[in-house]
Amino acid sequence: MIRVEFFHDVLCAWCYALSPRVRRLVEEHPDVVVEHRCFALAPTPDAIVAIFGSKEAGKAEILEHWRAANRNDDQHRIRADLMATRPFDYPWSMPGLKACKAAEVQGGHPAHGDMFDRVQRAHLTECRNIADFEVLRECAKDVGLDVSRWERDYHSPEVQELVERDLARARIYGITGVPTLVAEGRHTLVGAQPYHRLVRWLEEVRARA
Q: Using CA atoms, how far apart are residues 16 and 138, in angstroms rounded to an integer?
């Protein structure tokens, strides 16, 4: 088996483009097992201001990244113009990351992946506020989780610790951006690569194994 760690953030439009390709890779290559890992582009509520100077400047620049990622996305699902009309502040990473990790506690990495994709759709296609707990709770229901258990896990110190462990793991690997794939703890592929590049990378990993 080839173990692939998929580092991603719910805020990341490029991760949204890559995720269906990773799913396809697993479907077409049964020896690949994916482990989902959290990465926080905006780890605190004030991170957008700290990075970009203001909430408004941050949102404007991020939406330009959305437009570029939408050109990369195979189905062009990313709706930057719709998000530009939304009145809420651009969200931060941790609520969505905890939501995904709480799903993982309940259903393992497959549940994490399902929750990640659902939260990303809420963020990048539906343009809802994924810093709103009720939005995340609805996503948990949509992917078939036991919502009461998910809610308890979401608020637990254990889930916070699991997110922190993923962030520490990213630092150990030297990861500075997402999406990033790491196979067998040492073979890295960065960015929303086209599917044929993922297949070629997997072949290179197998050859080095």
A: 19
